[in-house]
Amino acid sequence: MAKVTRDDVARLAGTSTAVVSYVINNGPRPVAPATRERVLAAIKELGYRPDRVAQAMASRRTDLIGMIVPDARQPFFAEMTHAVEQAAAERGKMVLVGNSDYRNEREIHYLRAFLGMRVSGLILVSQGMSESAAAEIDAWDARVVLLHERPEAIDDVAVVTDDVGGAQLATRHLLEHGHEYVVCLGGVESTPSVGDPVADHIEGWRRAMQESGRSTEGRLVQAPYDRYAAYEVALGLLAGPDRPPAIFCSTDDQAIGVLRAARELRIDVPGELAVAGFDNVKEAALTDPPLTTISSDRPAMARAAVDLVLDDGLRVAGSRRERVKQFPSALIIRRSCGCG
């Protein structure tokens, strides 16, 4: 049986091969609804399947979006990756995912690999981008959207949540319960890079403490982002002589580790210790007690990132502030803070 071609579709639909291409590729030129319906009906009747490899060679782009995350095992990054995959599917694209494991050399490895595959663009979730990674992006002149972080090292478009404002909301809420002070569980870096979400969480916590007249001196505790390492840190913090009355965690995963440590030490949450997290991962509603946290609209952020990386005019002119699309944060009140 002869292979069905684009010419066959055009002949049956009574139009040109160019119009068939516009329908298949959703552009670059508009097609009248009636003509589009005829083309789609012809494609279905003939069983036509576009040659994606040939399309990629002709356009020098594939139907793939590259996405690099620090660790897809962590709930926040797993949920964000899923949201990006859903948004990409709505645009007829697939997503290739690489885990950098918080290592610059792996981030650069995936940058080179994905760009060499002629991906349509890159969505980069980077925890403290290195100068070498930024230089790699510039060298390829890549279509890149930063998601979740806006490092100063590069000037590409970023899609973020209001991390400072969200951390302020969570810390203020804990203080409104009458606690003398709130300890912040930050990241592993003593001085996180500008644009790092954890640096913004620390800044939001600091602002809330200072505006209420509380000191932050000695109340910022370094801890890795995952629950297992945070659990170990929390065991030492909660078993010590200066047990804090409340803890704001930079991630929900950290907060889950803190809740586990408190239970093991027979510390009642929220009776003896109030806890709040950040990210509103699905598991936060199922912890014991359910976790008060900060939420952002991940599906909307994912759609914005996919649209920006695929659409023309990606490189937005103007100041750094104008290149950042920021989504609001919302306080999700559950029982770990003392409410309910």
TrEMBL record:
<dbReference type="Pfam" id="PF13377">
    <property type="entry name" value="Peripla_BP_3"/>
</dbReference>
<dbReference type="InterPro" id="IPR028082">
    <property type="entry name" value="Peripla_BP_I"/>
</dbReference>
<keyword id="KW-0238">DNA-binding</keyword>
<keyword id="KW-0805">Transcription regulation</keyword>
<feature type="domain" description="HTH lacI-type">
    <location>
        <begin position="4"/>
        <end position="59"/>
    </location>
</feature>
<dbReference type="Pfam" id="PF00356">
    <property type="entry name" value="LacI"/>
</dbReference>
<keyword id="KW-0804">Transcription</keyword>
<dbReference type="GO" id="GO:0000976">
    <property type="term" value="F:transcription cis-regulatory region binding"/>
</dbReference>
<dbReference type="InterPro" id="IPR046335">
    <property type="entry name" value="LacI/GalR-like_sensor"/>
</dbReference>
<dbReference type="InterPro" id="IPR000843">
    <property type="entry name" value="HTH_LacI"/>
</dbReference>
<protein>
    <submittedName>
        <fullName>LacI family transcriptional regulator</fullName>
    </submittedName>
</protein>
<dbReference type="GO" id="GO:0003700">
    <property type="term" value="F:DNA-binding transcription factor activity"/>
</dbReference>
<dbReference type="InterPro" id="IPR010982">
    <property type="entry name" value="Lambda_DNA-bd_dom_sf"/>
</dbReference>
